[in-house]
Amino acid sequence: MTGSQGTAKIVLRVAIELILKPRLWSTAWRVWFRMTPKRWWKKSPYLPVPSANFVKFRILTMYGDGDKNPKNVASDLMLWLEWCRQWSAVTS
Length: 92
Hints:
Blueprint: H1 3-19, H2 25-35, H3 52-63, H4 73-91
């Protein structure tokens, strides 16, 4: 999935998955806050979203360079958030 249509589908799938897993809401919020660039309101698109370069880097480190269109991003993200939640419980 490339382009804005693919991105919109991924965002929608992630939102649905996250709505169905309230135990991950606080973890998702903390992770989102950490990934948001400082002073995000001073740069376009003027939204608290990670930079495109950061997202590309995370996709590369998660899937490697071979798969340009990963199909399980939403479920993989939920697994990662669950790992973050469990890790946070262990380290606190």
